[in-house]
Specification:
Strand order of the largest sheet: 3-2-1-7-8-4
Order of helices and strands: HEEEEEEEE
Shape: elongated
Radius of gyration: 19 Å
Largest sheet: 6 strands, mixed
Strand content: over 45%
């Protein structure tokens, strides 16, 4: 193994040890209050979850009738979570389709 290979291996090991972000998968257990089971072992409530607008319910009123444009999270939805480095916050990146 050359010195170049050794430096590459050390650099790769260091970068992997930083764990800049972890991608996890979860299932919504309840929507009100929001509770997500991540990786089948970690329960996360609203205090730990950052929910983007595209995962929230959006309704509009047209000619006196309420129309659902986008549904919010519901029990059973599978979601992608990204854990922030050095924090206990999880960003909900999106909903998975079956």
């Amino acid at each position: 193994m050359s010195i170049n290979d050794n430096v590459k291996a050390l650099a790769k090991g260091y970068i992997e040890s930083l764990k800049l972000a972890d991608v996890m998968y979860g299932v919504v257990k309840s929507s009100d209050p929001l509770l997500v089971l991540a990786d089948q072992r970690l329960e996360l409530d609203e205090d730990f979850l950052l929910v983007p607008e595209h995962l929230t319910e959006y309704k509009v009123t047209i000619d006196g009738a309420e129309v659902l444009i986008r549904r919010g999270l519901e029990a059973g939805d599978k979601v992608v979570l990204i854990r922030q480095q050095g924090a206990l916050n999880f960003y909900m990146a999106g909903r998975l389709t079956e």
